[in-house]
Write a structure and sequence with these properties.
Radius of gyration: 19 Å
Shape: globular
Number of strands: 13
Number of helices: 7
């Protein structure tokens, strides 16, 4: 059994077999199609930790023999400097190409080490993949709609801006702290402001982008990150900013709601 509180327990072969069995069952029951089954199986066979495996199967129905982790809601990947690459980020897009300078990285991969996880996800953990998914899901319960002006994730809180349903010239704002939304003062709103439908956000996209940010932006250790979902005349997009403040490294990228990269501005050590 994993030690209480640990997210980096190494996976055994029998754990990988158990995860693959859960995926086989999901395919047989129609929960996933053959293409997704094949992709997840490939990731499961190379999984480094129990958290990696749980992230692959925890959205599925059915029993599993996979060993539990202490906090299933925090099933995020970790990567030691000498360990195998995490597989969770690759769930965003199977085979996505990420340009970093003149180098092309295949797949979205996690680069965060165990000791940098708190910095990457923030002290409140709101940039952790499952937490972001839960915050996105909570907006519909809060608003009764998935259409928003902007959703922003910071290390210690999240911010939400939405059109006032009774007055499109005003914008309602909410702040997410301590596990709940709190409304703040309304502000003026441009009636032409483009909106984002969070229902169009692909499953696992936010988590994969966060976990792959280090590789995408050529930053070895991320200790600060924030992420925006917003829209303009070109359509909705996700913008992620990350930095290693100690090494003075930073970068950003923009992606679609399905996880395709639009623009990548990696850290360039030559500059």
């Amino acid at each position: 059994m994993p030690l209480k509180g640990s997210l980096a327990i190494r996976a055994r072969d029998q754990d990988r077999v158990a995860a693959c069995a859960a995926l086989d069952l999901a395919l047989a029951e129609g929960q996933i199609d053959a293409e997704e089954h094949s992709s997840r199986i490939a990731l499961a066979t190379d999984a480094a930790t129990l958290a990696d495996l749980h992230y692959l199967i925890d959205d599925l129905q059915g029993e599993t023999d996979l060993a539990p982790i202490a906090s299933p809601g925090a099933a995020v990947a970790s990567l030691s400097r000498r360990g195998r690459p995490s597989v969770v980020g690759a769930l965003v897009r199977w085979g996505v190409l990420v340009a970093v300078g003149a180098v092309i990285f295949v797949g979205v991969r996690a680069c965060a080490s165990d000791e940098s996880a708190t910095g990457t996800y923030g002290p409140a953990g709101y940039l952790e993949p499952r937490a972001m998914d839960e915050i996105v899901a909570s907006t519909e319960a809060l608003l009764g709609t998935t259409v928003v002006d902007e959703l922003m994730f910071y290390p210690e809180y999240a911010l939400l801006s939405v059109p006032n349903p009774d007055n499109p010239g005003r914008e309602q704002r909410y702040q997410y702290r301590d596990g709940e939304w709190r409304q703040s003062d309304d502000t003026d709103r441009d009636r032409g402001t483009a909106t984002v439908d969070l229902a169009d956000l692909g499953p696992g996209v936010l988590g994969g982008l966060v976990l792959g940010a280090g590789a995408s932006l050529n930053i070895d250790r991320i200790d600060s990150m924030y992420l925006f979902l917003r829209a303009d005349e070109s359509g909705p997009s996700i913008s992620l900013y990350a930095s290693d403040e100690g090494a003075n490294e930073d970068g950003r990228f923009d992606a679609t709601l399905s996880g395709d990269f639009l623009r990548v501005y990696p850290f360039d050590p030559a500059k």
